[in-house]
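Researcher: Let's continue the batch. This sequence belongs to Oxidoreductase, and it's 279 residues. Same format as the previous ones, please.
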Amino acid sequence: MNAAGATLVIGATGTTGSRVAAGLIAEGHRVKAAGRSATPVEGAEAVRFDWNEPATFGEALDGVDGVYLVPPIGSSDPASVMLPFLRRARSAEVHRAVLLSSSAIPAGGPAVGQIHQALPGLFEQWAVLRPSWFMQNFTGFTPHARSIREDGAILTATGGGRVGFVDAEDIAAVAVRALTDEQAPDADLILTGPQALSYDDVAAVITEVTGRPVVHRHLTFEQLRDRWAAEIPLEFATMLAGMDRAIADGAEDRTSDTVQRLTGHPPGTFRTFAERELS
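Model: Same format as before. Here are the structure tokens for Oxidoreductase:
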């Protein structure tokens, strides 16, 4: 990448974006921290950006040669707003793009899968990060964190299916390498932690680390879909519940060596995460 160019980090105050921005800044790279309110980020240039407001695209892309892409949250059709931005980024001579996607969604699949499919044809260098479920899904104001606090329970339709939960710290570390190494991966990267765990396993670890009893309550697909649909559009609720059903069928029962291979260090364990974030 051009050393003089900045990296635009979309969602720079979010779970991965904040960590990507911090990692880039720590290595001495110029960062434009993008968000809907242009929230100041130490060491970065804050810039207002909204996927639904094309008028914000120009300033965000000015002086940029790489971009970290976090899709609009909760959208079942991110391509409608992302593709126009990406075409504009290409015209603005952005050379490298790293997309945050999901292990559950392949190239050409629904939602962000459409962006994944388009990315190699738009940019000279690229990577698609496909992390498994975030360990951070059990912290803050996420649905799992709320249900743990309020009911001492994790509610899923995953049955005994296992997931290679991954720490957002490790996702960000891979993103920094993908954005700044001399050559981008130009690849689809599955990111996991070192172990595949069931939600029963997760509940047991949280119980041991915090000393507060936590259980995993098994819901049906329909029960979970209806719970989600009370808060979000039915189409998106159905997609999320379907991801749980896929976990029950074994879709996420895997681990990868991507974090170790790209960063040089092993991915963190769920217990280490819980001791750091939940104890």
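Researcher: Any comment?
Model: Residues 234-248 form the longest helix (15 residues).
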